[in-house]
Amino acid sequence: MLTAQNERGAVIDISGMSKQAIEQLRDIRWYCCVCHHPVVLKNGRVMISHFAHKQLSSCQAFSEGETAEHLCGKALLAAACRRWGYPFQLEAYLPSLKQRPDILIADQWAVEFQCSPLPVKRLVERTEAYRQNGYTVVWLTGRNLWLKHRLSALQRALVYFSKQLGFHMWELDVANKTVRLDFFIEQLICETACRYSQREWPAADTPLAQILNYPETASLSVKRTYHAQNIILRKRQQLAGLLANKNPKAAALQTYLYEQRLNLQTLPDYYFTPVSDFLFFKSDSVLVKRYVWEILAAHPGGLSRTAVVRLLDERLSPADWWEMPNIDRDVLLHFFVWRYLSLVKKTGFGSSPPHSREISMIPVKYDMIMG
Fold first, then answer.
1. Cα–Cα distance, 5 to 3 (Å, whole number)
2. d(Cα 103, Cα 285) in Å, to the nearest integer?
3. Which of 111, 317, 330, 363 could form a disulfide with 368 if both were Cys (CB 3.0 to 4.6 A apart)?
4. 359: Cβ–Cβ under 8 A, 6 or more apart, which residues?
5. What does the domain layout of the chain look like in residue ranges?
6. Please, which residues have CB within 8 angstroms of residue 340's CB and are 6 or more apart in sequence?
């Protein structure tokens, strides 16, 4: 930890102090700001200067074994706030939440620098607690959690969404002192690797609020080329292989379709339209797309996209979703329905889909996703 309090309760933040100045504090008795147990000042040559509990502690805000990356990351963020004059609290404990963000900016941004694996359930609980109490939570990831080729369950829980940059997540590069954004993240059916773009900023040279607001203010596009028929063919081959190997999920999907007088291996191409839905659906997207067509078939007079989303949400269960606490489920469903039906409407993908009247009522403009 980078903060502590003395016997009178005065809090000190050593993140911006020199080694020499910190050494002058050694003879003072210091205590944890949360559990009030004694802490020791460590001011060596290798690790960044910090405080640590004298004994193993049950402190609910600080865990022992804090890495150099985590300490340096907090100091880097604090320095950026000082440089640009942002009011902030380092390691501010929020008693009503029983949580301590790494840095609280302007009593609004709860910034967490996550360097090590964390149970998804715990991350969801922390995120929801921040949001329910009016804080904007920003998860910055350390080196071990940076996006590489595929998204883990934990990384999915760290993803955000904006109508300007789509799915995105944050990284903090302590070694290079930069904040990095992975955006336009996509993972298509039959692809294990993600596609994404990146932008980074030197932490000291750009106002932190400007960086964190970038997903809502950016105006740019990225052109990507997809070989749709190849993707569809690979998906068909994948499902055929799963059925041959008696995969339980594939067999359950086949049974469900059989009850609808359909066959998984002879479904029209528009069930395999390449949409970046693997980011948030655990269940096979073929099943979710079938739900969409059933909804449209039940309403031949046409439906608004909002109505399709509401009815689809009623069909889905918690088991169909990855945990993504930083994005409202309604936003995810609007994105999926808009993207899927827009692509079907534009391309057809093989034999003509039914319910063309209903499809024609789905808005195509990207900036209408949030509507």
1. 7
2. 39
3. 363
4. 296, 341, 344, 345, 353
5. 1-64, 67-223, 228-368
6. 273, 275, 277, 289, 292
Matching residue, tokens 């929020």? 94
Structure tokens at 77: 């963020």
* Paired tokens of 55: 């004994």
Q: What residue has token string 């690797």?
A: 193
